[in-house]
Amino acid sequence: MDISNANTEPFLGYHLFHENINVNIKILSASLHSTIKTIDQSKDPDKLGKLITEADASWNNPPIKSFGEITTEQILSSVSNFGIIASYSAFDDFLNGIEAEIARYKSFSDEETNIDITKSANEKTKDEDEKIINIYERNNWDTKNIKNYLPTLKYFRLIRNCMAHRDSKSSEKLAICSKSEELMSSFNKHIKNKTINVLPSFSINDEIIIDPKLSIFYSHLLREVASDINSKTVSILGVNGLLNMAFYHLFKEHKSVSTNAYRRPQTVWNTILHGRYRMRLKDDTEAIQKAKNIKILVKNGNEETDLWKECIKQFEKKY
Tens of pLDDT along 308-318? Predict the structure, then answer.
């Protein structure tokens, strides 16, 4: 069984989020550009109000005649706020999911891991609430694959904090970070490209105005880090841990995943492993045989069975 390109459930969740936020931000940006152009070209002073009413009948006769003093950049930045705050929250959920998968593996397996159990999941580094650094330190993972992203991710995290807690006014920390040599050097050497070639800098209490494409870029950087974390987590879980993970999300979690292949437990099992978690199987029986060799405790830990028997039992309940 080849797990070199396997997905964990948390990584798949963040990947799908990134794909959706990418589409949503582009649609919202295009819609706003179209609305602004329509209003600018219209001779009807009530055109904006009519468009709002068309969007939702309950907004009939809105007291909005124009954009007033709000600039195009400010209007588009509201989309960026949505993207940055949503990406931060989705990645936070991803990290919590990874912690849960590792904890579940520790309770499921007696195998030795490199996890430093002396470090609490709530422990914070000197850099405020930098959860990315925390999870790498806690699991003794090398940060070489992500270290070039960290200054830029800190920059966006500070932007997110200002959006969420300072009404989009820049803090002293953001002002210092946005002009720091560390950020500029890391960004220019490792991240800058034809599309994203500059990061806005701020002074204290500046209004934060961010182009929507930067919020997509932020989510992309988070996905790069999530991919590295996913690979390291797969190395911890191994085949048995991934099979146990698949069993949990297929049958045991409150909002379990579903598959259209539901006629036989073998089909459901192989479909979820290959299609969802990208585990390459030699044949239709390989994963079943491995599941038969995995012992788990059921009935409050008082009875032992094998994972495949429990799969069949839970399949009959669900399907």
Answer: 999 999 888 88
pTM: 0.89
Q: What per-residue string of b and e applies to 70-107 under the rule 16 or more CB within 10 Å gives b?
A: eeeeebbbbbbbbbbbbbbebbeebbebbbebbebbee
106-115: long-range pairs with CB below 8 Å, 24+: 108/241, 108/244, 108/296, 109/240, 109/241, 111/238, 113/236, 114/139, 114/140, 114/236, 115/139, 115/140, 115/236
Q: How far is CA 56 from CA 33, 50, 184, 216, in A?
A: 19, 10, 45, 28
Mean pLDDT of 141-162: 96
62-71, 140-149, 172-181, 304-313: which range is least confident on average? 62-71
Of 36, 20, 22, 123, the C-alpha closest to 76 is: 36
pLDDT, greater one: 188 or 62: 188
CB count in 10 Å sphere of residue 149: 20
